[in-house]
Design brief:
The protein is mostly helical. It has four helices and no strands. One of its GO terms (molecular function) is DNA binding.
């Protein structure tokens, strides 16, 4: 399993499900839009603190961002 790919896919999936643009989501999470973009494009690794901020902003349990639904 490529954890970065799974995480990126799940962040984008949950973000679009709640209808937020990258910019609006980044603001809600307290992160920069280019950082969110890089995560969704699998270009960035991510600190655990930011994983939690992203999960909180998405309104999902943290572990859901790491589940490969394939």
């Amino acid at each position: 399993m490529d954890i970065i790919k799974v995480f990126a896919h799940n962040v984008k999936k949950y973000r679009t499900l709640i209808g937020l643009s990258q910019e609006a989501f980044a603001e809600k999470a307290g992160l920069h839009r280019t950082y969110i973009s890089a995560i969704e494009r699998e270009k960035r690794s991510i600190a655990l603190e930011n994983v939690q901020r992203i999960a909180d902003a998405l309104g999902v349990e943290t572990y859901l961002l790491f589940i490969d639904e394939k």
